[in-house]
Amino acid sequence: RAMGKTAVLLSGGVDSAVALALLKKAGQEVHAFYIKVWLQEEMSFLGECPWEQDVKKAQAVCRFLGVPFQVISLQTEYWEKVIEASLQQIQLGKTPNPDMLCNSLIKFKAFQDVLNKGKAETADAEYQHTASGHYARLEQRESEILLKTASDPIKDQTYFLAQLSAEQLRQCVFPIGHLVKAEVRALASIMNLPNAQSPESQGLCFLGKMNFRHFIAFHLGERRGKIIEQSSGDILGGHKGHWFYTIGQRQGLGLSSGPWHVKAKNVEENLVFVSRRGEETKPYEKHISLAKPHWISKTAPRLKEFMRVKLRYSPESLKCRLHSKAKPDSKHEYFVELCESNENADLGAAPGQYAVFYDHDVCCGSALIL
User: Fold this and answer.
1) Which of 30, 113, 216, 329 has the most CB within a 10 Å radius?
2) DSSP result, 99-137
3) What is the pLDDT of residues 230-286, one digit of tens each?
4) Among this protein's residues, is 320 annotated catalytic?
């Protein structure tokens, strides 16, 4: 269908390249953009952030397809809305989700603002839609826009889009949401795209192309503390700051006789509590407090009805029921009751992350884990 002028976000990876090629092949008027977010000049000591390589790949795809291309700098917006906000939460012992902030505040908000204000070189006419290589589907049902899971359950990215509003989603296009990854790779080869054989794109430099521990250490420093076994109270080792750890973390603990995972943190005393499977004081958290609910349809799901929830980005979801706050003076607005357990649930819910709710294949929205 004709969509008017469409801005396509390119990362340099194969997913967004195939999304662009499919829209071009369908006869859509498309302009491609690369969003530059990283302050490379200021943070170069952290390691090379090869955004230039990503730009070159994106440029090659656009030359091949005959599509206009432009780099849009949103470094200030990204720093203020994503980096600073994430650092504040990490310092408080939370586990923020920069991906979700980037999607809702940068890719599908600040970027749109730039286009609509005519700041982009190619913004000679209004863009009706913004397309990306996200694995997700959209369906218009009467007056509602539904965010639906992708055909590829492993690659499905609705979790990271669960903070978008219905208004934002109405402007979105996800051309590869009906495909599985193998089909996307095959299409890239068939269409002879220059980056058809490129390895998986890791997205933003902040998220995938630098040493995250070094980044945290630079901004928050180090502070020695103890790693304690939760069930016995025994001191198992030391650490350099609770902010380097997140609930459920299994890697990088440096402990023997494992496997261990992080079960809790004491921010004031800088303590990290760990547990071994089968030795937890309680097998898994059945009730999890939530705040700041965001429902895509602006209508909360029916309370106490069964649905599915993801407590972290994973192909797996858990059967659950949503409840309103138990007491009038309670700080949480909802709590989710888990009706089943699995390995992810047993590792615990990380405060600061999001619980994302599903009604079959429809993503209903999300709420902040307290």
Assistant:
1) 30
2) HHHIIIIIIIIIHHHHHHTT-STT-SS---EEE---S-E
3) 989 999 999 999 999 999 888 889 898 878 999 999 999 999 999 986 555 555 678
4) no
Token readout for 163 is 């903070």
In the set 49, 62, 102, 364, the catalytic residue is: 102
Task: Please give the Cα distance from 53 to 193 (Å, whole number).
Answer: 16
Instruction: Give the pLDDT confidence of 341-351 residue by residue, as tens digits.
Output: 776 666 778 99
Strands ordered across the beta sheet of 271-276: 235-239, 225-229, 271-276, 260-266
Length of the chain, in residues: 370
Provide DSSP, 251-320: SS---SS--EEEEEEETTTTEEEEEETT--SSSS-SEEEEEEEEETTSSPPPTT-EEEEESSSSS--EEE
Task: Judge whether 205 counts as a catalytic residue.
Answer: yes
Contact (CB, 8 A) for 223 and 267: no
- Name the residue among 204, 185, 32, 182 with its Cα closest to residue 101: 204
Cβ(248)–Cβ(312) below 8 Å: yes
Token duo for residue 55: 């730009």
- Catalytic one among 62, 172, 205, 320? 205
